[in-house]
From TrEMBL:
Keyword line: Endoplasmic reticulum, Glycosyltransferase, Membrane, Repeat, Transferase, Transmembrane, Transmembrane helix
Coiled coil (UniProt feature): none
Membrane topology of this protein: Multi-pass membrane protein
An annotated Gene Ontology molecular function: dolichyl-phosphate-mannose-protein mannosyltransferase activity
Pathway the protein contributes to: Protein modification; protein glycosylation
Catalyzed reaction equations: a di-trans,poly-cis-dolichyl beta-D-mannosyl phosphate + L-threonyl-[protein] = 3-O-(alpha-D-mannosyl)-L-threonyl-[protein] + a di-trans,poly-cis-dolichyl phosphate + H(+); a di-trans,poly-cis-dolichyl beta-D-mannosyl phosphate + L-seryl-[protein] = 3-O-(alpha-D-mannosyl)-L-seryl-[protein] + a di-trans,poly-cis-dolichyl phosphate + H(+)
Keyword Manganese: no
InterPro entries xrefs: ArnT-like_N, MIR_dom_sf, MIR_motif, PMT-like, PMT_4TMC
Protein name in UniProt: Protein O-mannosyl-transferase 1
Protein's cellular compartments: Endoplasmic reticulum membrane
Pfam families for the chain: MIR, PMT, PMT_4TMC
SUPFAM superfamilies in UniProt: MIR domain
Species: Loxia leucoptera
Length: 726
């Protein structure tokens, strides 16, 4: 039984020394002097705020994308023991001693370093030579812009890492397809493809471009499989289900998990939660939850309520009234009803309170037991402080003449009777007998006499006579459920005082009754996802913003950091030699592909079929990766920066060795031509290395350069190299 112990246990392993060397060089280039400068660099001022909020468990919304990338940055802060206490208010501000700079910058740097061996392996899996793969990795290694972007607390290097990992995983999976389908390694690489795609999308929505490219590629490959007569229908179905599971179902589940962790971590109220619905805010610790804790759930006749407009744009606001009336005549000469003003007010105020009244009874208190208001019930809304009834009539609104004016009715003893009956319609009801619930129910108020719907009119502010508060109107065209027509009860108490003086005291008092209103994860996810997709900060011109056309020729740069006393500075600048070569490679690839297609149409085959398939597949990945990550920016209406081009240029750089090997293998027919071409490639690569070394001082921020040296780096007039005045 113990015979196996007679011989030593031997483990053999193959180590790709080139791959190890490239990984080490990548780590050295990205990790060297990582703590320098010990100051806020460009967008660290933006992402650092979110890291601090994670450390303090305070909820936030970032309209730039999903939370996974932010969580990875926060993980670095957590591992470094960061307590979140730092004021991220200025680029160049010195970090205090409690900020673990190295730890915060570590994950982006590691991701950037690992892109070097990933580039090598992608070219190998595309069946190009070791020399071509080595060239691709070295070009990524010596790309100044990728080095700069990966050495700071930014997301692009992490995004590019997951994009390249997804591409490599899919290529490895595809290469195993013929001989090792459904093996352990086949499943591993297929699943890793889906996981990497989900992570890329979770870092930034730009990851969707590469995800769509890989899904399209997988679809084309499966389409070719359908034509394979050697595969049975059952086998094809298994292949289809495996791809659906790994490339669609699992990425979706993982994407949801990013939000689950995000929401689990950020359970405290903060400044950002005000754009969320009342139900969402009430689910957070502190803030609105502190106000609404203990409120009755069901709205009843006699309830005292505040009504928040669900739209929340341009700011959150509550239905409001005050003693002032509409002017008899507006500035444009139109007349008003001179009734009491009703507005939407963006601050908490006692004048936001309303009482839900039964039109058939006079009492303004909740009966015992309470009589709940249901969908379809007719109510009157009585302003708590002035006791006037919410009213609308066929009088033009002050700023929206095609809509009806909304007011609180004053009886002037003229021929203008009160029209103050409103039908409650619960938009998110499950049945027509649903009870109107605090926070949870989204309701419309439909005017009984005119069928107009109570609406916040989209951010229009009243003039000085209306204290610049937001206009509220009766919308006659009430098709659909636009959010500006939908309201929810935010604060709620059961009224007990029939006398006005006592009721005013009651309106200022906190609520007492206890009821919980927790949202499900899916409800919170849906709302947060919608806010991320629709929330738009005002795009303003930035000193370093650029257009997509500027990126190809690198006519722009970004000054990331400037030393307060010396000339040391850091810029986002690409390696000019590499970028020019990448553009040339893309042009050569396009021209050669068109030439080959035309010749093949004429039944002239200049290269073998396997070389043609290799050419097309490499172009689909590298050229297609460049196109899908670049061309969409021409359709985007947002402020663009040079770093948005980095995923695209990474794919374009991978195309350079593809084109070079093709030219060497198929166009250089003689030994002399091959030798001359090799010499040119060596000279060209020396140029790439020379440019890398030349711009290293503004890539790493050290050493500080003299004025003459800084001026010498301004290779283009459009570059903004910072030169201090003497």
């Amino acid at each position: 039984m113990l015979g196996f112990l007679k011989e030593p246990v031997v483990v053999t392993a193959k180590i790709n020394v080139s791959l190890v060397a490239l990984t080490v060089m990548g780590l050295m280039s990205r990790l060297w002097g990582l703590c320098y400068p010990r100051a806020v660099v460009f967008d660290e001022v933006y992402y650092g705020q979110f890291v601090s909020l994670y450390m303090k468990r305070i909820f936030f919304v970032d309209d730039s994308g999903p939370p996974f990338g932010h969580m990875l940055l926060a993980l670095g802060g957590y591992l470094g023991g960061f307590d979140g206490n730092f004021l991220w208010n200025r680029i160049g501000a010195e970090y205090s001693m409690n900020v673990p700079v190295w730890s915060l910058r570590l994950l982006p740097a590691l991701a950037g370093a690992l892109c070097v061996p990933l580039a090598y392996q992608i070219l190998v899996e595309l069946h190009f030579s070791h020399c071509a793969a080595l060239g691709a990795a070295l070009l990524i290694l010596l790309e100044n812009s990728l080095i700069t972007q990966s050495r700071f607390m930014l997301l692009e290097s992490i995004l590019i890492f997951f994009i390249l990992l997804a591409v490599l995983s899919y290529l490895k999976f595809y290469n195993l397809q013929k001989d090792s389908a459904f093996s352990g390694s086949w499943w591993f690489w297929l699943l890793l493809t889906g996981v990497a795609c989900s992570c890329a999308v979770g870092v930034k929505y730009m990851g969707l471009f590469t995800y769509m490219l890989l899904l399209t590629t997988a679809g084309l490959h499966f389409w070719h499989m359908i034509g394979d007569q050697n595969l049975s229908n059952v086998s094809l179905l298994c292949h289809f289900l495996a791809r659906g599971l790994a490339l669609i179902i699992i990425p979706m589940g993982l994407y949801l998990s990013f939000f689950y962790v995000h929401l689990a971590l950020l359970y405290r109220s903060g400044p950002h939660d005000q754009i969320m619905t009342s139900a969402f805010q009430a689910s957070l610790e502190g803030g609105l939850a502190r106000i609404t804790q203990g409120q009755p759930l069901e709205v009843a006749y006699g309830s005292q309520i505040t009504l928040r407009n669900v739209l929340g744009k341009p700011m959150q606001c509550w239905l409001h009234s005050h003693t002032n009336t509409y002017p008899i005549r507006y500035e444009n000469g139109r007349g008003s009803s001179h009734q009491q003003q009703v507005t939407c007010y963006p601050f908490k105020d006692v004048n936001n309170w309303w009482i839900v009244k039964d039109p058939g009874m006079q009492q303004l208190v909740v009966s015992n037991p309470p009589r709940p208001v249901r969908h379809g019930h007719i109510v009157q809304l009585v302003h708590g402080i002035t006791t006037r009834y919410l009213n609308t009539h066929d009088v033009a609104a002050p700023l929206s003449p095609h809509s009806q004016e909304v007011s609180c009715y004053i009886d002037y003893n003229i021929s203008m009777p009160a029209q103050n009956l409103w039908r409650v319609e619960i938009v998110n009801r499950e049945s027509d007998t649903d009870v109107w619930k605090t926070i949870l129910s989204e309701v419309r108020f439909v005017h009984v006499n005119t069928s107009a719907v109570l609406k916040a009119s989209g951010g229009a502010s009243l003039p000085e006579w209306g204290y610049r508060q937001l206009e509220v109107v009766g919308e006659k065209l009430s098709k659909g459920y636009h959010q500006s027509m939908v309201w929810n009860v935010e604060e709620h108490r059961y009224g007990k005082s029939q006398e006005q003086k006592e009721r005013e005291v009651e309106l200022h008092s906190p609520t007492q009754m206890d009821i919980s209103k927790n949202l499900s994860f899916m409800a919170k996810f849906t709302e947060l996802q919608w806010k991320i997709l629709t929330l738009k900060n005002e795009d303003t011109e930035h000193k370093y913003s650029s257009s997509a056309l500027d990126w190809i020729t690198m006519d722009t740069n970004i000054a990331y950091w400037l030393h307060p006393t010396s000339g040391a500075q850091i810029h986002l600048l690409g390696n000019v030699a590499t970028w020019a070569s990448a553009n040339a490679a893309a042009l050569v690839y396009l021209c050669l592909s068109l030439w080959y297609l035309l010749r093949r149409r004429r039944k002239i085959y200049d290269i073998p079929e396997d070389a043609w398939q290799l050419w097309i597949s490499a172009g689909g990945i590298c050229g297609g990766g460049w196109a899908v990550n670049y061309l969409p920016f021409f359709l985007m209406e947002k402020t663009l920066f040079l770093y948005h081009y980095l995923p695209a240029v990474t794919f374009q750089i991978l195309l350079i060795p593809v084109v070079l090997q093709h030219l060497s293998d198929h166009l250089c027919r003689s030994v002399l031509l091959k030798s001359m071409f090799s010499a040119l490639v060596v000279a060209w690569f020396s140029w790439v290395y020379f440019v890398y070394c030349t711009f290293s001082p503004v890539t790493y921020g050290q050493p500080a350069l003299a004025l003459a040296e800084l001026r010498a780096l301004r290779w283009k007039d459009t570059w903004n190299i910072l030169i201090r005045k003497q």
